[in-house]
Every structure is written in structure tokens, then in C-alpha cells.
Amino acid sequence: MTGKKRVVSGMRTTGKLHLGHHHGVLTNWLKLQDDYDCYFFAADWHALTSEYQDPAIVKESTRDIFIDWLSVGIDPEKATLFIQSEIKEHAELHLLLSMITPLPWLLRNPTYKDSQSDEGQGGDDATYGFLGYPVLQAADIIIYKANLVPIGVDQLPHVELTREITRRFNHLYGDTFPVPEPILTELSKVTGLDGRKMSKSYNNAILLSDDETELKKKVSSMVTDVQRARRKDPGDPEKCNLFPLHPLYSNKAEIDEICAACPKAEIGCVDCKKILLKNLIAGLAPVHEKQRYYRDNDKLLDEIIANGNAQARAITRETMLEVRKAVKLG
Ligand code: SF4
Fold this sequence. Notes:
Elements: E1 6-12, H1 19-35, E2 37-43, H2 44-51, H3 56-72, E3 79-83, H4 89-100, H5 103-107, H6 110-119, H7 128-131, H8 133-142, E4 148-151, H9 156-173, E5 181-184, H10 212-220, H11 246-249, H12 252-261, H13 269-296, H14 298-326
Parallel strand pairs: 1-2, 2-3, 4-5
Helix pairs in contact: 2-3, 3-13, 4-8, 4-14, 8-9, 10-13
The protein binds iron/sulfur cluster.
């Protein structure tokens, strides 16, 4: 026991990670791993809720995601990194929690409701697994007796469901789990090439693994301030889709110059993109170097994953002994 509060967080393995992940979730994990007892997992079962028709991407992405985590500095010495589906106890607890979760709690979950209004009842998302997603999420969290769950404000209803399910379990079978608290994390300002949320499904993402050619292609295609139709039109960095990347990659003098010149049309978007591209390539170079290192060291990666899985499993086995006793099955 470290005496530190415990944090659990996962990422769905639905594709390679992008700058939205890097400057949102991962920046936050980097801070958390220094102060808390962290459990970070590749959520491959969760990925299947959307990728069940093409599951090969899930396995492929799991390895890629580990490489990306390690390459940005997530440290297996500080945090336990593991694969959800390797820890079968998550599935057992999910099943037991399913028995006590009232159906209306799941039916009113906004993610489920939205999917139904977009697709109509009976769409591809209307599976038992998708409806029960928050129950699996509750199992993922409380099986580690987590105290804290880092989330963006959009995920608050999910954590609230986890809290309700935990309270219900404790009420029915005696106090077994702490009720986890959300830690609200700042949402990343980085958006996709087209100005929408950066996402694989919108095909608008700059990947952490994009090489120079790809970065060049993507940065040149980025939407900027849409009011700035011509070079001589003044722009506004505040309204520009590309600008939030500058504070992450460019130096202060460059940023000050862009902020002063853009509103007077003294710099064009093409030149502004060139500055960003140069800094993005330099900023991602150490990440790319580590990605190559881990890609070339299969055995090391296998070891890191196996160690993390073993550490996670040791805890979940203990928890499930307690849980089985509580529900009179042990
Ligand atoms: S000059 Fe830069 S900050 Fe201004 S609108 Fe163009 S890309 Fe955006």
C-alpha cells in the first residue's frame, strides 16, 4: 500500500492516439501518475461495443496505445498499465453488478439515449453490451476500490451511474467499495483539422504517430479563422481552429508575433501554418523516437504489459474474494 489515493482511468482501443488524446487525457495522466496510485488500462472490451463488426482494429490498437502512452512519458514504474480483457475479474464483477442495476438507470443514460435518437431504435448501437457499458465501467473502477476517476465534464453522468451502482451494492451486501469521486479535468482546446472535435470517426485527427509528410499534409489542410477568406482580411487567433496548437508547440516570441500580426493581416495563414509545422515536427520528434524504440523492442513491451496485468490481477483477485463472500457465493 502506498497510502496514496487510487485513480482508475481507461482508454478505448479503437485506433491510434491523436493530439486530442495527447493534450487532453494523457497530459492529465502524466500529472496524476506523480501524485496518486494510478491504474491506467486499455479498454478493449469497451472498444468492442462499437468495433464488434471489425474486431481486428481492437487488438492492433491495444499495442499501439501502449506504445503511445510510453512514448509521451506514462511510466510503468509510477502507474500500473494493463489490458482490460486480460483481467477476467472485471467481467465477473460486471455480471454481478448487472443483477442489481435497474434497467431505467441505463435507459436514461445520455450516451444511450443520444445513440438511439441518431440511429433510431434497432440501429447498430442498440446492443445489450452498449446499453450495459456503464455497468462494465462501474466494475472497471470499483474492482480497484478507486477513490478518484478523472473525467471530462461530458462524462459526469457515467461516473454518477458508477456511484449509484456502488451505493446500491453497498446497501444490499454491506460496505464493500468506496464510492468513487470524479476529478474534473480540463478539456483539451485542440480540435480536428475541420474544426470539429478531433476524432478518428471524423477522419480529422493529427496522430501522435504521423510522420513529417503526413503532418505537412494535415497542417496545410487545417481550417483557420473562417472569416479570413483572403490574405488581406484580418484574422482572429481566438476564432482560429489552428491557433490552440501554437501555445503547445511554438515559443513565446512566435506566439506574440502571430497574435499581433494576424489581426492586422500582416501574416498569412500559410506562413502561420509553416511556423506551426516546423514546431510540431520538432515537438513530436522525441515522441516518434520513443515510438520507434518500443516498436523495435517487442519483448520489452510484452514485459511491461505482462507486469501491469499481473499487478492489476493481484488486486482484482482479492476484491472478488470479498465480493463473492458479500453476495453469498464465496
Ligand atoms: S494567421 Fe494563424 S492564427 Fe491567424 S487565422 Fe491564420 S492560421 Fe489562424
